[in-house]
């Protein structure tokens, strides 16, 4: 072979190796088809999925927290209406309108009509299918409140919670101010709740100031009933003997006798002891005498 051609060939190879080149690879058609299918499936799933908007979420019937939220809002609204003096009943649609809950679904409406409002202790259903607030006590003014306190005092039922009166009586603060001289307020030390009692002025007594001073000076907070009874016995006072809880007396059981019972023989037909009866010839014999 010609040496000149060989030299040109070597120079061409060196130049080709010295210059960088970028090759474009062909994509596989199968992979391209798979990618296009995945994109189409994802787009179709996104388009068919339900949109969770605010209005759509409110109509979903599976959320129990949303149901009870609607019910709690209705009860609070009916209570505030009663405290403001609005005592006329309302339909379910009117209640939802006043509470701005008209976008409630049909399932929740049916649940409110058949179960929730029917069984709620704070809601009362009228004969015509309307609803009204049900307070603890049926009192409308200060006269009915005073009458209720007098009945509790006469029957020995005790006092009434202030929160129950505030819930039951419309415009409660105005009525309590006008009855300030007729009501006694006592705060319960356990939970700091205020209790109302009727101020019966006929039971007031004039107590000597010396006795009041002695009563207030005597501290019995750190003493129990046993120590108080011991102190009174030392002073010669035995008035607490019959007070306090008594221990129940257990009746004694009678001991069961272990004697064996003797069963008595039956005494029937003793007057026929000497009579022999035979069924062959229908004869009776008594003391040697036979009778057919």
TrEMBL record:
Localisation per UniProt entry: Nucleus
Matching CDD domains: TFIIE_beta_winged_helix
Key words of the record: DNA-binding, Nucleus, Transcription, Transcription regulation
Stretches assigned to the TFIIE beta domain: 51-140
GO biological process: transcription initiation at RNA polymerase II promoter
Annotated region (Disordered), positions in chain: 16-56, 237-274
Official protein name in the record: Transcription initiation factor IIE subunit beta
């Amino acid at each position: 072979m010609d040496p000149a051609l060989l030299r040109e060939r070597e120079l061409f190879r060196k130049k080709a190796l010295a210059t960088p080149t970028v090759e474009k690879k062909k994509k596989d058609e199968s992979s391209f088809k798979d990618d296009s299918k995945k994109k189409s499936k994802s787009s179709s799933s996104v388009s068919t999925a339900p949109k969770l908007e605010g209005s759509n979420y409110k109509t979903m019937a599976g959320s129990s927290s949303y149901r009870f939220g609607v019910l709690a809002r209705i009860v609070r609204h009916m209570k505030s209406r009663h405290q403001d003096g609005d005592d006329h009943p309302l339909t379910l649609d009117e209640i939802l309108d006043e509470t701005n809950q008209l976008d409630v679904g049909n399932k929740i409406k049916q649940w409110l009509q058949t179960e929730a409002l029917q069984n709620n202790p704070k809601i009362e259903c009228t004969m015509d299918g309307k609803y009204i607030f049900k307070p603890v006590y049926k009192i409308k003014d200060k006269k009915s409140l005073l009458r209720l306190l007098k009945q509790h005092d006469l029957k020995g039922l005790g006092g009434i919670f202030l929160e129950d009166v505030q819930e039951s009586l419309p415009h409660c603060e105005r009525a309590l101010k006008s009855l300030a001289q007729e009501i006694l307020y006592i705060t319960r030390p356990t939970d700091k709740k205020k209790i109302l009692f009727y101020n019966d002025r006929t039971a007031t007594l004039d107590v000597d100031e010396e006795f009041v001073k002695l009563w207030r000076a005597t501290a019995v907070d750190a003493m129990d009933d046993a120590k108080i009874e011991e102190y009174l016995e030392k002073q010669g006072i035995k008035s607490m003997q019959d007070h306090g809880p008594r221990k129940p007396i257990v009746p004694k059981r009678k001991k069961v006798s272990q004697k064996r019972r003797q069963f008595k023989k039956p005494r029937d037909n003793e007057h026929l002891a000497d009579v022999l009866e035979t069924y062959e010839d229908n004869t009776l014999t008594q003391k040697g005498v036979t009778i057919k």
